[in-house]
Specification:
It contains 1 helix and 8 strands, in the order H-E-E-E-E-E-E-E-E. The chain has one helix spanning 14-21, and strands at residues 26-30, 35-36, 51-55, 59-68, 82-89, 94-97, 111-119, 122-129. It has 130 residues and is mainly β. Bound molecules: zinc ion. Residues 30, 32, 34, 43, 45-46, 48 line the site of zinc ion.
């Protein structure tokens, strides 16, 4: 089996990955209260570079998704078909992840709960239907 692709961990996104390793999903919030994901060294709304990482509750809802029926990387051949979804966290930021259920059970705006899974040594934020 091909090696599972690894994220590019940088000084900016390291707190996010460290958070997952500690069982926490982190997003960023600037001093003006804007919240965002993925990690960036400035706020995408007001461009402030003064921010902190905050812990998400883990609750969210499904905004949209696609189903992959073809593996675009050999490491994914065993898991097709799988979904790639946009999930809006209860706190507002949106993230790309997977919903751990059959594609027939995916419903727009369905409520979801974080489930951190360790896959090939990497902690990943996935979501389960509530
Ligand atoms: Zn801001």
């Amino acid at each position: 089996m091909s090696e599972f692709p690894q994220p590019d961990i940088t000084e900016i996104n390291k707190p996010f990955w460290d958070g997952l390793n500690n069982g926490e999903l982190l997003f960023q919030e600037c001093t003006n209260g804007h919240r965002w994901m993925p990690a960036s060294d400035f706020c995408p709304h007001c461009l402030s570079n003064i921010f902190k990482f905050k812990k998400a509750s883990g609750k969210g809802k499904l905004i949209s998704w696609v189903i992959y029926n073809k593996a675009h990387h050999p490491a994914f051949e065993k898991i097709i078909p799988y979904n790639v979804a946009i999930i809006e966290l209860e706190e507002g930021p949106k993230m790309v992840s997977n919903v751990l259920c059959e594609k027939e059970k995916l419903i727009p705006a369905m409520k979801l709960m974080l489930k951190i899974e360790k896959i090939n040594g990497l902690s990943l934020a996935k979501f389960l239907p509530l």
